Amino acid sequence: MNQFKISALALLLPICGFAYAEEAHPLTVGASVIYAQSPYKGGQDRYIPLPVINYEGDRFWLRTLQGGYYLWKDQQDQLSLTLAGSAQRYDSSDNDLGAMKGLDKRRMTLMGGVEYRHIADWGMVRTNLLGDVLDKSDGIVWDLTYLYRFDFGDFSVTPGIGATWSSANQNRYYYGVSGHESARTGISRYRPDDSWSPYVELSANYRLGERWNAGIYTRYTRLADEVKDSPMVDNNSQLTVWTGISYSF
Questions:
Q1: Contact status, residue 132 vs residue 109, Cβ threshold 8 Å
Q2: Measured between alpha carbons, how far is 56 from 226 in angstroms, rounded to an integer?
Q3: Considering all CA atoms of the chain, what is the largest pairwise distance in Å, rounded to the nearest integer?
Q4: Residue 35: CA atoms inside 13 Å, Cβ hemisphere, count?
Q5: Beta-strand pair 66-73/60-63
Q6: Which helix (H) or strand (E) holds 220?
Q7: CATH number for the domain formed by residue range(s) 27-248
Q8: How many angstroms separate the first and last alpha carbons of the chain?
Q9: Is 42 left (phi over 0), alpha (psi -120 to 50) or beta?
Q10: Which of 9, 116, 132, 246 could form a disulfide with 15 if both were Cys (CB 3.0 to 4.6 A apart)?
């Protein structure tokens, strides 16, 4: 199944990766560009060029920013340990607003945990539970998605619907305002709790030849109240788009 996907953490640019290659072509490489809308006041939307490197083996797999080891794998069920890079961040030096420039940086991190997929005729359920392993946020994120793929010859479309739960630590690191930040900038102190953010996603893939594929992935996330009520945030939703081309060996 060649399709674009983002696995978990879609608030900003969470953990993401291109879809896994077909079994007949276990290695896929290519190039892509990600557009990530900033949720922050004065924040800059980002365009991120990213190489595509996917590998699907009997035990190990790699999907660009995410990799893992299968604990169980058959045609219907896949359970794996996984590590995933999270590109979510806040860089005060990139902000245009004076008060926001005085806030501390929120850095990218590495998330680790478990991922499970169930594939059936009625669609696919994908879920993962990941925690910060670099002690940046000390946060935990749980993502649950339902997807169904439609095939039209060389063209396929996969819509999906899901939700992401973020722990209080995750929200406080990326959207909270500490007491010393408030005193320094005048921005109100903010200490959010855990939250749920629903989203819809759509991926489309076109087979250009036996080994070449082009695709686009987009996800629209409705930000939770705990996020959009932050004095750092001025959006109630967020859009991520990922497009590129790949070659399967």
A1: yes
A2: 37
A3: 60
A4: 12
A5: antiparallel
A6: strand 212-222
A7: 2.40.160.40
A8: 15
A9: left
A10: 9
Structure token pair of residue 211: 């080994």
Query: How many CB atoms neighbour CB 42 within 10 A?
Result: 16
Rounded-to-integer distance, Cα 115 and Cα 92, Å = 33
pTM score above 0.70: yes
The model's confidence at residue 60, banded by pLDDT at 50, 70 and 90, is very high
Phi/psi at 7 (nearest 5 deg)? Answer: -105, 95
Q: Give yes or no for a contact between 202 and 146, defined as CB atoms under 8 angstroms apart.
A: no
Residues near 3 by beta carbon (within 8 Å), at least 6 away in sequence: 19, 149, 156, 158, 203, 204, 205, 215, 217
Q: Can you give the length of the chain in residues?
A: 249
Instruction: Tell whether the torsion through CA atoms of 43, 195, 240 and 106 is positive or negative.
Output: positive
Alpha-carbon span 173 to 39, nearest angstrom: 14
Closest CA to 58 of 77, 38, 73, 47: 73
Pairing assessment for the beta strands 66-73 and 77-86 based on DSSP bridges: antiparallel
- The pLDDT of residue 16 is above 80: no
At 16 the three-state DSSP class reads: coil
Q: Decide if 231 contacts 187 (C-beta within 8 A).
A: yes
**Residue ranges of the domains in the chain?**
27-248
Residues whose CB is less than 8 angstroms from the CB of residue 69 and which lie 6 or more positions away in sequence, other chains included: 59, 60, 80, 81, 82
